[in-house]
User: What shape does this take?
Amino acid sequence: MNQTLLSSFGTPFERVELALSALREGRGVMVLDDEDRENEGDMIFPAETMTVEQMALTIRHGSGIVCLCITEDRRKQLDLPMMVENNSSAYGTGFTVTIEAAEGVTTGVSAADRVTTVRAAIKDGAKRSH
Assistant: This one.
């Protein structure tokens, strides 16, 4: 990304501090990777406080694909298999099978349904129902 453009948001350290502040306040941030990598940006919102409006914005202005970042421990707790057994992607990005809340959703596609799924997945003691 153009460093001149980024500098208007402060030093690298200041940008990280601003991003952490925004996340603590329930707001989203945009994280950009290197032009020599995938050259893309990710909209990131805290799962615990994500609103239906924030999810709708993510769906509308992103690819429509919403990812929930979870730890390996949470993946195991939820008994979620990896999407592919042998990951041969260029950067080794790991994805699990898709998920949907067992209760409280209709089609699973709406912003409200997706927020319900996120909340179900991060809930203490959450388990996968087959």
